[in-house]
Amino acid sequence: MKKNCIYAIVLLWIGALAVQAQNEERRLSFDNLYRYSKDAQQVKDDKKEKAIKTFRNQYATVPYRAYDLTKIKISVPEILAFLNDDGTFTDWTGREKKVIEGKDAQEMGLFITDAMNRLWKLSEEFRNDRMGVSLDKDVFRKLQKSILYYGNLEVSRSNKVNRFHASCFAIPTAAVNIYYCFLKQMDAVENGKTKDQQLVDMCEMLKALALQSWTQPLRNDETDKNVVQIERFRNHVWWVGGNALAYRPLLPVAMMYRSIPMVDLLVQVAQGGISYTSQNTYNTAFWTEGCTADGAGWGHGMQCLVWGYPIDGGINALNILGALKNSPWDKKLTDENIETLLNFIRGSNWYYYKGNITPYIDRFTARYTPAKVDIRTLAIVDKLLKDWSDSFTPVQKNELRCFLHDARKRLISMNGYSDGMYNGTRWFFNNDDLIKKNDRYHMIVNMASVRCDGLESAVAAADEYNFYPADGMTLFQKSGNEYRKAIGAWDITMTPGVTAREGAEKLIPVTNWRGYCSKHNYAAASTNGGENAVAGYIFEKMDATDKIESERKKNIPLKNEILYGVKAYKSYFMLKDYMVALGAGITNLTPQTQGTIRTTIDQPEKESEVVVWSNGKILPVGAGMQSFPKDGTSFWVVQKGKFAYSILPQYTKNASFICETLKTDWVKRNSANKSIKDLPSQVDILRLWIDHTQNPVNDTYGYVVYAGDGMPEAELPFEVLRNDTLVQAVKSKDGKVIEAVFYQSGEVLDKGDVRLEVSAPCTVLIEDINGKITISVTDAAMNAGLKEIVLQWNGRHIPVAMPQGAFCGKPANITL
């Protein structure tokens, strides 16, 4: 009795709220229901109407996103035991009161999601008469009341907050599945063949809830007035890529409404979404996120998220088009669709090595997952070969089959394809990433510019300390999992390759959906796809949300102040099995901030013996921190079977290394690790770094990483031509490779037999390959108006046309 009184009070309170402030939201939901139902009835087409009936019967037989049912852990008998006569759940009295009184929008969404998922699971027992439609009229009536009760809570929620995730993904998915579980009853309602008002109300509530996949969150723009238009699915983070097509039950809802206009539009969106965007086509591309012209992808802004939103958006676009095959909406893949898919499949391969996802290309790196996994584009390739084979030429189909064969082995070799497609070096110009990949090793330099965002982090929902991945993070791999265990113990202010201020213990995790970037419009790499490449960027950290005027004021005062105030000019030179890293202009712009500035060379797991290779001798490494010699002595720190590290003492004043065993803190890195058993409590780590002191001004550094087999050569096979804030350059000892980074035009590189000048800031790679001179030039500012860069090289005048449009920023390659 007491329990029923509590519910009565809650119901009365909810009713009062609905009558007052939230009446507007409820009215909007049902206005939308009636409006889009009426709009659907205005368009007639016999063939499409017949196809819709077929689809409805299919959805009545097979649940949509059935795998979500496995996540609902409560059993059907338990659901029935808790389901009260008035439709509420008796085990949630305290939780419901707390959620309603707390007025927390996210908690309310999760609460209603849990309720609707219970009702979905119970409804599945009715599907296909497994319990008989007339199974138990009392249960069916209580189910209807529950749908109306929790549905009313949902449609009455305020739209003054963004109703994301629960309102547009989870709750509509549950609602549309419940609808199809009772399709016979729903048909009876819609055909006017029942006088059961509660059944009518249930049908309308389910349709109102399901329609939220099209209406929520409100965009507060013109598209809210008509969601069935192409602009609804463009130019907004909630309505592009995976957020548009992957997680919303759009097609089942369109069939629920028998809406030909909705299905027509989904075909347009799915086909248009399989296209690419870039910085210079951002305002004209179909989607502002998704696949990028360089072969990678963007999500939640211009951040490199290869594995999430581009794949989710692309594969679900194919799912929608595939579901509509052999129907009146049947479409073939266009040339743009094919070009985008092939480019993305090739590009994804560079972020995957020997069964391992490259660290920090999504927000789940710190979730402990040491086991090898399939590359996620395997699913796209498999689908293309099964469902869309007739869209590809014999050569393209053979490439897809080769990829499928290699991907299933988790070793993507793709032998026989040209340099830069699957192996060699590649510059991802939309994402500031230079990658080198071959069957022996993998390198990635994740640079930064104002053109790209960083990597998102989310407190209690994903990685919580993604402060440095796009600050010039430089990773070296031979097995592909050199960092998987080490990350749990990392001093994150010593992320490999990054120049940053110490003080990891001062950092407080934040939710940042855009991550961090550099203030400067400078990042470039030049390569023709072979084993040599050059890259450079200007680093000065900023919160990427500060690029948006309306968001900037929210970041004042700065959180985690130690992140900011360091400036550096950083460059990378890949010459065969060597990578040379140079730094110049390293300055503490906020000397009042405590903490030494350091450049970390590497911080991998120590998996094998670490020794010193010096003057032809292998020497043991002692305990504790040790220093690199400053006298020019040949001195390499070598982890056997992995990589060797040395410094260039003319540019590096103070460098150290240490082998140590550190405690891990996986749960601190990502709260999802709480559920993982047997997390490693400690890990052996090799750490190498350069100390710039607390207040460096125009400091420099230089270090070398050797990736080849055995020990490095006794004499370095290259020489540094220059290392300052105007030019950084390296030349091979045999003179066949020249690599340079020019930070401004008009500056002359004049050293020995090399005299080189450029007409615009750029990176330059000059190679003598079998007697032929090849030149690669990349515009570092991605200047859409720049038609050519002119080189003056040893008396030769060499104009190089720059790529235009979506491919602005891509290396331009010529052969003399």
Supply database-style keywords:
10-stranded antiparallel β-sheet; single chain; alpha+beta; disordered N terminus; 19 helices; 816 residues; 6-stranded antiparallel β-sheet
Would you summarize the structure shown here?
Helix content is 30%, strand content 23%. By secondary structure, the chain is α+β, with helices and mostly antiparallel strands.
Mean pLDDT: 93
Question: For the CA atoms, what is the radius of gyration?
Answer: 30 Å
The end-to-end span amounts to: 91 Å
Principal-axis shape? globular
Major sheet size, sense and barrel closure: 10 strands, antiparallel
Total of helices: 19
Low-pLDDT parts are: 1-21
* SS content category: alpha+beta
Helix content: 25-40%
How many beta-strand segments? 35
Relative strand content: 15-25%
